[in-house]
Amino acid sequence: MHPNPLYRSDDSATDAVLVGQIGFGMVFAATPDGPRVAHTPLLMTEGGAVQFHLARSNALARHLDGTTALIVVNGPDAYVSPRWYDDRNTVPTWDYVALELEGPVRRMDDDGLEAFLHAAITKHETRLGGEPWRADESSEKMWAGLFRGIVGFELTVAARRPTYKLSQNKLPETRARIADGLTEAGSPALAEWVRSVAR
Question: Total domain count for the chain?
Fold first, then answer.
């Protein structure tokens, strides 16, 4: 988390927006073999917990149940040029959106894992538009093989550490120019976040 409180947020609803938009993150935990990280799809439940699955063979999978873990979600990020400021006698910076969620993890049972998978499939297939692929298009053998290969988990959020570094230390008109510059430079997603604090 960035040390400047200007870049933090008490609004946990924004966390859900970020997790929903990105849908992917990193899970960190200590193991007897040292610290480990896994990259995985994420879903936030209506209650604010975060669900994910790992390959059964993943180095973290056998250590997560009952432990405390850290999930990191990286949102959009980009270089911010001083050319977009009123005073060019300054230095460049980097704007970014990131979220750390810490808490205890429990392993989900098969019903919980299946519900997670169906929810994730529905969410991402809907985003693609067109005729969605449906889980029932997989054979029972294929689906059973999937279940043998993965494990589902849920992290209950006990601590959240968001960083929304979006040029809040600049005047609104400067932030508007930064957002325009980011859009032109190919970072429209970050530009939208910058605009969200420029209003």
Answer: 1
Sign of CA dihedral 110, 55, 105, 16: negative
Is 11 a residue whose pLDDT tops 90?
no
Q: CA-CA distances (angstroms) from residue 5 to 1, 10, 74, 92, 164?
A: 9, 10, 19, 20, 10
Q: How far apart are CA 144 and CA 197, in angstroms?
A: 46
**C-alpha triplet 169, 172, 175: angle, nearest 5°:** 70
Tokens of 188: 């429209």
Residue 55, strand partner residues: 150
| Token pair recorded at residue 155 | 């992290």
Report the 10 Å Cβ neighbour count for 43: 19
- Taking each helix axis from N to C end, the angle separating 188-198 and 172-184, rounded to the nearest 10 degrees, works out to 170
pTM: 0.92
Whichever domain contains 150, its CATH number is 2.30.110.10
Cα 50 off chain centre by: 10
